[in-house]
Amino acid sequence: MSSSNLVPLSILFFFTLLLQSAIGVDPLYHICSSSFNYSSGSTYDKNLNTLFNQLGNKVPHTGFRQSSVGHTQETAHGLALCRGDVSTADCKSCVSTAIAEIKKCCPNDKAAVIWYDACLLRYSNVNFLGTIDSENKVYLYNVQNVSGIESFNGKTRDFLSRLTDKAYRSPKLFATDEMSLNKIDKLYGLVQCTRDLSDLRCKKCLDDAINELPNCCDSKRGGRVIGGSCNFRYELYPFVISKK
Ligand SMILES: *[C@@H]1O[C@H](CO)[C@@H](O)[C@H](O)[C@H]1NC(C)=O
Ligand SMILES: *[C@@H]1O[C@H](CO)[C@@H](O)[C@H](O)[C@H]1NC(C)=O
């Protein structure tokens, strides 16, 4: 990507008790670029609406879609991704909600991103497809610390790195797993990349996210680094939806 990055550096810190295991319907977070605005009824507005329609229609069937609509300066580039374990119905409803919400949260903004438990939606007038987003990043963590688990941070890092090795080699760039930490405690994890990335860029994106562990989640009972191109999550309780 050229030097004209429109999305400002936004590393955000989040304090949250991640106790509910159900798929939440509220957004986890959103970031509006606020650098360039478009006016209602403009070419960009029309292209963006076409883009949203395409994503809303196509994403639920495969869990991912990227698209670019329009020409030259007025092109709207975007993608939507559903979490690898959600059903088609939940994916559809998450993407529809994300489209409605991002319009409300970032009205007339030429670039924005919104995250939910079950999906991610991102668009921009700059073509970001295929490149790693290292600017939009959110940390979420459980404020409670672990106790009585030996080498928790190291084990969590190794666990997420193994998941990364699984994910970047898989067609969906997605992996989940669980691991016993001792006789009682089990670690549950999930990693995922947006599928516009090559497998090696997916690996790089997740490696970089995992390197944020000391900043985000040191000794925390649960943590996530959520970016525009990849994310990970770990918890001491099961949160992945098992497919029947
Ligand atoms: C774009 O619009 C938002 C919301 O109205 C405003 O806060 C922001 O300053 C505007 N940015 C520019 C570059 O005009
Ligand atoms: C967790 O550990 C950190 C660092 O030792 C400490 O500052 C914080 O207060 C602890 N949080 C809780 C909820 O006990």
TrEMBL record:
Residues 26-128, 134-239 form the Gnk2-homologous domain. InterPro entries: CRR_secretory_protein, GNK2, GNK2_sf. GO terms for cellular component: extracellular region. CDD domains: Gnk2-like. It is found in: Secreted. Keywords: Glycoprotein, Repeat, Secreted, Signal. Pfam families: Stress-antifung. Residues 1-24 form the signal peptide. PROSITE patterns: GNK2. Its main location: secreted. Belongs to the cysteine-rich repeat secretory protein family. This is Gnk2-homologous domain-containing protein.
